[in-house]
Design brief:
This protein is α+β, with helices and mostly antiparallel strands. It has five helices and 16 strands. The protein starts with 5 loop residues before the first strand and ends in a 5-residue tail after the last helix. About 40% of the residues are buried. Mean pLDDT is about 95; it is low at about 135-145.
Length: about 300
């Protein structure tokens, strides 16, 4: 399969230091960028992933001040899954138990054994065993055999089958590989970020954005031309209204609301997180876009310390 897959997912949090302790200290991800929300620079936007933040490995956290808990409903991402090595779920279950992170073992409709838990803000996460070679070399307690190997995929709650299914296949190049128990599995490739699951839940109320919910799911575009081709398909075939380009220094994105209600982005693979920091120093210093650099002292006084 020759496809793009997921670029990253972004979740909303309340406490940036608590989230950092979890994603780095518990899950062993690397902080690859410490910056701010460009539209609300008084709050952090922090990215976690493999050693260099390769597309398909990244979860980012938007820290909203005084955020209230969100509510999951239809048209929402209800679980973000990471890949781990074969035969490592029991190790992870023991680790989470030791660190007082509630967890449970489940089996997906497609026969996968998955370990389910949540981050401190309530974002639903899981681990899935996969067989491909790992990316990066960071892991909890320097145990590379158990390191996270990037995103596996996301699960969306949707009311019914709609044009989202067509968009996943004809715009983003995912293929429908299984349909069981009201759940559809789409696969783009067998690497990080290659899987999306749609769960049909029937008539149900919409969720509410807030702490512990996923703000958006970003799909990969190799470059601006690739993204333009996808935008043209969305506009001409589906009548989708796409946002103006969003420049985030490390990627360029456009956003749109999928027919199922989930906020999708299309994000370029480049220029990547090493554009303003050496790879070995990623995530250490607060990085600001040029238009905010003159406010550095002010923002550093507002933002909580994050070492």
């Amino acid at each position: 399969m020759n496809a793009r897959g997921l670029h990253h997912v972004t979740t909303i949090i309340g406490d940036v230091r608590r989230a950092a302790d979890f994603y780095v200290g518990v899950l062993g991800l690397k902080r690859v960028k410490k910056t701010v929300c460009y539209d609300d620079p008084g709050s952090y936007h922090v990215y976690y992933g493999d050693d260099v933040g390769n597309p398909g490995t990244v979860i980012s956290t938007l820290a909203w001040n005084c955020v209230t808990p969100g509510m999951i409903g239809a048209g929402e991402v209800v679980q973000t899954a990471f890949r781990v090595a074969p035969n490592s779920l029991d190790w992870w279950a023991d680790r989470l138990e030791t660190l007082a992170v509630p967890n449970r073992m489940e089996v997906s409709p497609f026969g996968e054994r998955i370990l389910c838990f949540a981050d401190p803000d309530g974002t639903e996460l899981s681990l899935v065993e996969t067989w491909e070679a790992k990316l990066g070399n960071g892991s909890p307690n320097s145990s590379t055999d158990h390191a996270l190997r990037g995103l596996h995929g996301v699960t969306l709650n949707v009311r019914e089958e709609d044009a989202t299914i067509d968009i996943l296949q004809k715009v983003f190049d995912f293929q429908l590989v299984a349909h069981r128990e009201g759940t559809m599995r789409f696969v783009a490739h067998d690497g990080p970020g290659g899987t999306i699951t749609l769960r049909m839940i029937g008539k149900s109320s919409r969720g509410r954005l807030g702490g512990g919910t996923i703000r958006h799911v970003a799909f990969r575009a190799s470059d601006l031309d690739d993204r333009t081709a996808m935008i043209e398909k969305l506009r001409s075939t589906y009548g989708i209204v796409v946002s103006d380009p969003i420049e985030r220094t490390y990627l360029n994105a456009v956003g749109f609301r999928a027919p199922c209600g989930v906020l999708f982005e299309i994000a370029t693979d480049g220029p990547g997180f090493a554009v303003d920091e050496a790879p070995e120093r990623l995530g250490r210093k607060l990085q600001l876009p040029a238009f905010l650099e003159e406010r550095r002292a002010e923002l550093q006084a507002i933002l909580p310390p994050l070492n």
